[in-house]
Amino acid sequence: MLVAIVDRGLGEKVVGFHQAQDVKVNMICLGRGTASSHILDLLGLGSTEKDVVLSFVPVSRVQEALANLSEKMEFKKPGKGIAFSIPINSIAGANVLHYFTTASLEEEE
pTM score, two decimals? Predict the structure, then answer.
C-alpha cells in the first residue's frame, strides 16, 4: 500500500497520477497535522489540513510508482508532501488482495 500525505485539495492530483499508471484502488482520507502555526511558519510549511491518499499497488510496481509520484508532486522540495509504502502480507484472502491490486473480481483464466 502506498501512502501519500499532501496539502488538502491535492489528493485528487495524486489519485490522477496513480490512475494514469493503472492503479485502480485509491482512497482519500482527510487528515490534520499537529504542528502549531508558529512552528509551521518557522519551517516554511503550509496548512495543517492534509489529504492522506491510500493506494494499493502490486509489490513489483511500488518503487516505480513512488519515484513517479515523488517527481510529479515535487516531494523533494520542503513542504510539498511525503509518500511511503507499507507492505501488506495478508488482506482477508486472495480475492480481496486481487481486487485491491487490479480492481476486478474476475477470475484469471
Answer: 0.73
